[in-house]
Amino acid sequence: MTDLPEVPGVLGADQLRTTVAAIAAEQAGDGALPWYRGGQLDAWDSVEAAMALDVGGEHDRALAAYGWLARHQRPDGSWAAEYRDGAVTAPAAESNHAGYLAVGVWHTWLCTQDAAAVDRLWPAVRRALDLVTAMQLVSGAVSWALRPDGTPDDTALLTGNASLHQALRCGIALAGLVGEPQPDWDLAATELGTALRERPAAFADRSRWSMDWYYPVLAGALTGPAADARLAAGWDTFVVPGAGVRCVADRPWVTGAETCELALALTAVGRRDDAAAQLAAMQHLRAGDGSYWTGLVLTDGVRWPVERTTWTAAAVVLAADAIAGTGPAAGLFADPAALDRPAREARDRPGKIAG
Asked: Would you say residue 149 has pLDDT above 80?
């Protein structure tokens, strides 16, 4: 049985095991991992849920979710923005959805050292990140989506770009692992990191949303004093003591995923106690079966929307793993240097991964 992380006084291993089981219960027989059974599926959230399955030792289920995505990838490297029961319900191609598979595949490698899985999924990762780099704008930011004619939209979103910064770094690590360097990805990651740090005008103004506040820290674009300063600047705007993080600054609505993602950002800058406090603050969203409600409206105590999503539960598992720091993939967020070490070690060992 896989040893799950524990966050003393917040979540024990048995509680997290129950949460992983709640995520697994929503997976379809063909591997599809939607928000909830019968609900919508998008590539980004499906990858996040699969990552939580890997933390919980459900490796076959995680690989089934990645396999579903590989089978449904379009020739240009994208996925539709939304599927339901395998059918496309929103055809738009979003860069953030394309990029995140690289994070998931690198995460599964860290968890399992499964070379065969990396070999199977690498072509899908390569197509997806090639698309991402093709969508990069002159500013260094990446367009949020393709227009119907296949050209990149002029708008770039900060949260999505921060996630893409992490995705490109994971993709670069995977490229080193399989022995297929991708210099275009290196250049794209460098330019994107510069845009995230120095060119705020390159991104649409969505500063009302908490994700735009903490995501550059979570994804490793901001580190050191710059990361500390950013977290301090938005703290009083978004953090509701004892309840979690507002999704939007001017709404009385806290959400579990955003709270856990802030915990990941705090862990990345070494503030594990503060991260654990945020994880504790959102436990009012936990349901009896270990799943998690998406959010709570503070003014009337109503859970909204009335849904328990796999990606909210996954954010809990990933935050707990990062805070505990004991799992093989815990450093994915907290220790950016961990992205490179296993690849260097693997290249020194015999095995299928070698081109």
From this structure: yes
